[in-house]
Amino acid sequence: MSYTELIATVFGITATILSAMRITYTWLVNMVAVVMFAFISYQLKIYSDLILQAYYFSMGVLGWLWWNKKASNHFVHVAYWSPGLNVYLLTVAGILVAAAIVGYCTSNFHIWMPQWFPQQASLPYLSSLVLIMSLVGTYLMGRRYIENWWLWAVSNLISAGIYLSLGSLFIFISYLIFWVIGISGWYNWQKEYNAAKNPIGNKSRCY
């Protein structure tokens, strides 16, 4: 375990806990974790994850602005996206197609841009699937949609498997922790959503 992995994990777990609690500061804390994880991704040759960290950083700025517009005491209210089954299925299909395209591209980075990526990417298609799911999940989280936790549940498990196969045990354990916190986040957001729909029957606030 390196100091970079430790710092990235501590800030990443803290950011995930804050997002599960619907606290706006999650975006600022996460941007620190993003910089650290970007460095780790480059070292491990997970090039699609490097792209993902750049996206996370930009979404951190937007997420901070979006959440603060709707925040009350640094807490946000949540909702369902709920576009219908057909749109859900199209979204899943789009994620798979996009992951295949990005996977093909990242698997050839070492050929197309050897000066920047001297070695072949590790697990390009799986890591690209995580990339696309995380892009969509981060956007849904920024818009405060509960469905974001569904994507994180799957992508965190895949990420755990990727880092385990690459021998990074500490990051593997970190992603398992992210998964557990994500399940808690889904429960917490769902509880707040139910309370907001039925304020008389459930006056307790979910933190």
Structural class computed from helices and strand pairing: mainly alpha
| Element-level helix/strand string | HHHHHHHH
* Share of helical residues: over 70%
Distance between the termini: 33 Å
Give the tally of structural domains: 1
Q: State the major sheet.
A: none
Account of the protein in words:
There is one protein chain. This protein is mainly alpha-helical and 207 residues long. The chain has one domain (3-197). It has helices at 3-20, 26-43, 47-70, 85-107, 109-112, 124-142, 148-165, 169-197. The relative contact order is 0.14. Residues 203-207 have low confidence and may be disordered.
Which features does this protein show?
single chain; 207 residues; mainly alpha; disordered C terminus
Structure described in brief:
By secondary structure, the chain is mainly alpha-helical. It has eight helices and no strands. The protein is globular.
Produce the secondary structure layout.
Blueprint: H1 3-20, H2 26-43, H3 47-70, H4 85-107, H5 109-112, H6 124-142, H7 148-165, H8 169-197
